[in-house]
């Protein structure tokens, strides 16, 4: 097919699936950041005794997690996650194909001073591997203890997301691992954001510069929310009574 055999088609698949990645990260980081707001409003750890959705007295973060459990979102999130997975796996496959076609890793490197020849653009394979590996690490901390038991009845369901945050980010070395992950996500998405718009034709000199600035700000805010969430959870677990 044209979309899989042509260079433009392959870039289009990556652009569309990349949009899934950015949207997924936006939703995920926003819900997580609710926990930071709860820590300032005295709602950290506020979870009703029942397991009903949107129980009175729940903290904002718990309400956000409940929102993610509603039928519509429960359908949408796997779709977004699938687009996320397609983006990474397809990108890894394309990179491998390019390396083979050019005769090896060193021959894949093209000496250039162009703006598109940033460290991120030349090392998307490395970033993809780091991101993919840490996703598996991340799933064992949250998805395996909330969505997996709820959706498939596997394992023990944890109704207190604040406890999961404290248990996960209460150890400094895990926080460091997550910070590395967030940094890799930032570099990958900053490059991917403007590359996505370039693929669909928004590459005029004036608007392309604006898109790159907008992308830098937008992606930085997403990753900053992730970072603040992790650090705040570490503080809550170790220094707040």
Provide an overview of this structure.
The chain has 241 residues and is mainly alpha-helical. It has a single domain, classed as 3 helical TM bundles of succinate and fumarate reductases (Up-down Bundle). Helix content is 75%, strand content 0%. The chain is built from eleven helices and no strands. The protein has helices spanning 2-5, 7-41, 60-68, 71-101, 105-108, 119-122, 124-139, 147-152, 161-169, 172-199, 205-238. Helix 2 (7-41) packs antiparallel against helix 3 (60-68). The radius of gyration is 20 Å and the shape is elongated.
Brief account:
With 241 residues, the protein is an all-alpha fold.
Number of helices: 11
Q: For the record, what CATH class applies?
A: Mainly Alpha
Write the H/E string, N to C: HHHHHHHHHHH
Largest sheet entry:
none
How many strand units? 0
Shape-level CATH architecture: Up-down Bundle
Whole-number tally of structural domains: 1
Helix content: over 70%
What is the radius of gyration?
20 Å
CATH topology: 3 helical TM bundles of succinate and fumarate reductases
Provide the low-confidence segments as ranges. Answer: 107-117
Beta-strand content estimate: under 5%
Structural class from helices and strands? Answer: mainly alpha
